[in-house]
Amino acid sequence: MIATTKKPKLTVPGPHSSPLFGNLIQMFKFVDDSISLSRQLFQNYGSVVSLLAEGGTNIYSPYPNCPGTVIAYGADIVREVTSQHDVFHKCPLIGILYGKQNDSPRTKPFNHILVGLFGVNGGEHRQHRQLLMPAFHRQRIESYRDEMVDIIQSELDGLQIGEIVNVVELMRRLTMRVASKTLFGEDVNQGGEELVRLLKKFGKRLGNPAIAILPFDIPGLPYHYLLDAMLELDGEMRDIIRRRTTSGVDGGDVLSMLIQAKDADSGLTLTEDELLGHVTAIFAAGHDTSTNAIAWVLFLLSQHPQVAADLLDELESVLHGEPPTVEQLQQLPLLERVVKESMRVLPSIPWNGRVASETTTLGGFEIPAGTEVFVSIYQTHHSAEIYSQPQQFNPQRWEEIEPTMYEYNPFSAGSRICIGAGFAMMEIKIVLAMLLMRYRLQLITEKPIDGKGMIVMSPRNGLPMLVYKQDRQFTQGVGGVRGNVREMVDLPQ
Ligand code: HEM
């Protein structure tokens, strides 16, 4: 626990709040549309900005006396934060709720649900990461290829020509199935529905801002229903873990590997609570991210017909309509560039959140202990000092540029770099290759495309697309896009 007995003052520049509920309003604005608000703040105050000059905001830090929120961007900032992991601590995905455990047994799961790697720092993080690494080794990940292909095939078989499909929902179902199969060995379509239902229910309750404002376990209040959903999820997950532990069967999935994982020096294995923390965190970190990464690629392709045509040429010439093998994935350079460029312009994780474990500096400003710091991956990727015409979706640029890991970091950088990056890239590429050879998806522009969300950036109104057999009519459906995405990427009128 970071000890801050008195709330120190922030001296990082930023806007001043209105007298009544100014901090709540600013927090709400940030959570609602962090990209637009931060763009404005960076323009007005520079690359290191306080959400409110006087502090008093707390979005993510579970520690009492958090002095406020600092947002920052740029390669130097990314380096400072990601290379000093003992100074800039990471906190559980459950955010401020992590600090709300009390004597009630109903709050006990806050200890572990969505904690995993996100909730450990320093030596403990190194130890846990080492235990998890074998499950994410290249060979292990590659062994998931066949299961991924089967699930993708079955989801694509379900698409009807002429129907309008919300691509975000389609990809969410697909990546959830892939995650539950590779993590727990349970395909959603073959009996894993209960777990996915409970995870969804819990995620929905967690997204209700009222739980932070009225955290009282009283029937009728959203916090009460969050605790109910969390206990149900906790129970279901424990059952899965116990079944797997007592059966002693290695199903080849991540959970089986984690049950067997043993620290080489101490011989320690993961406790049931730790296992629960890891699998819920990996599940949460591993499917919504990929869902939106794929959705944004499909959006950008729908508005860049020449890129879409070139990509299909590449896919067909190498794959001839068949799902890619692991080796063939290395022979698709344009696919690689399209995905990289899409994750540069519209990263599905726009921020890296941290909390200062001691008083330190960032970009030359003093950062008091306990301050929460958000580093903007999005704004770093849109920096004109690093990328010429940063708003342009131009996969070709990757033929000439080789940014450092601090300049380009959709998966973060340093010792806390995404453990699932290899898994995600393989999944995203296989989905795109199989989908694009079979179908053309034409964007429906009825509703604005608004990229929203603080943890994961997602199109708020979904991404409705009309399904065609792949007919190469890529110029259809180009243009007419409205919404805040126009401020993020250059699009045809
Ligand atoms: C396009 C897909 C993905 C993106 C963009 C992404 C991005 C990220 C980023 C930016 C971080 C660092 C967050 C921070 O430092 O604050 C991270 C961490 C993490 N990711 Fe991913 N991720 C993706 C997919 C996955 C998948 C598929 C898995 C697992 C199956 C996964 C598991 C994790 C875990 C466990 C961490 C914590 C690592 C640590 O703290 O040591 N991610 N991811």
UniProtKB/TrEMBL annotation:
SUPFAM superfamilies, per the entry: Cytochrome P450 (SSF48264)
Keywords, ordered alphabetically: Heme, Iron, Metal-binding, Monooxygenase, Oxidoreductase
Positions in coiled-coil regions: none
Record bears the keyword rRNA processing: no
Highest taxon above the source species: Bacteria
Molecular function per GO: heme binding; iron ion binding; monooxygenase activity; oxidoreductase activity, acting on paired donors, with incorporation or reduction of molecular oxygen
Pfam families attached to this UniProt entry: p450
Named cofactor requirement(s): heme
PROSITE patterns per the UniProt record, alphabetical: CYTOCHROME_P450
Residues bound to heme: 418
Family indicated by similarity: Belongs to the cytochrome P450 family.
Protein name: Cytochrome P450
Organism per entry: Brunnivagina elsteri CCALA 953
